[in-house]
Amino acid sequence: MSDTTAAPLRHQNRALTSIRGVAALWVVGLHLQFGLSLLGYREGGAIFKPGYLAVDIFFILSGFVITAVHRDLATATDGMDFFIRRVFRIYPLHLFVLTLLLALWLWEVTQYGSHDPTEQLRDLPIVALLLQPYLIQGLTWNTVSWSIGVEMLCYLLFPLALRLLCPRPLPGTLLLLAVACLFERHAHSEMVWGWPAIQRGLAGFALGMVLQQASSLLPRPSGRAADLFGILALAGIVFALSTHAAQDVPLWAALLIFALAAERGRLSRALGAPPLYWLGQISFSLYLLHPTLASLAFALLPPAALHLGPHATPVVWSAILLAVLLGLATVTWALVEEPARRLGGRLARRARNQALAGHE
Fold it and tell me: What is the pLDDT of residue 94?
């Protein structure tokens, strides 16, 4: 594609990958701060309490990237390729973490004769299939996986949504973008089950899709313009958080995604630096693993065991836990996520070739 329009994301955009990593850390911070606050530690509340908004950013980013990569999806063969890749991107790590949780459940029952009341065996098949946002009205196994259950619904609806979206000219797309922004702003919720949770996912994913379509029709911003948009977006996020206008954070994040999609400017290069890019690569593992590791840490090595005082204790304890979490996430990314992703790619290509051969 020429320089006059936004380049399609046929490769991994390093800056956008990094944004996913930062968002995952924000969720981790939210849950750690919540656990620490129950023990009387209050540090970091203002920064991490709005961390649930990172999930809305995940949905927007997912809709944007999926649309950029699969915007040519038109046939049944394309759809099969898409779904095979998505299933192998989501389910292997999810089932791996669920297996770890089941092993811990069995250990707790064996050692103590009790277990976390939110983890009921009858719910396990529902969670394994990622149907918990629709069928379970409460907390359950690895609660954070609710979002990938909603994400799977977005994937199922994606081919139809793409057909409705992509033929639209620029004026219609910009009008649709304004509607999507309003929908996203009013889908603001902390619920992780039922219609509020589903609405959050659909609103964010739809906004990401429309934003990507608009960016493909608009002139591709120069490096200076991309930096300006990016800095404006970051300032907007800070302003929204400091003025208790949290519902606006996902919209500012959408502007940041638009700016970084151009892959131009100093901000894009800075956010694509190796440490941040690595964080983005392991973000899915980071997201799914952290509740389990945090629960173990609170039980086996509580913060008070450090005896460092009320201010240093939560900081040092969180730093130790985060270091362990980053290491484990890197291992699961290398041994579970990446092999599963590559396997999905091979199976998708094989299925495509067989389908094409059957039509000859």
Answer: 98
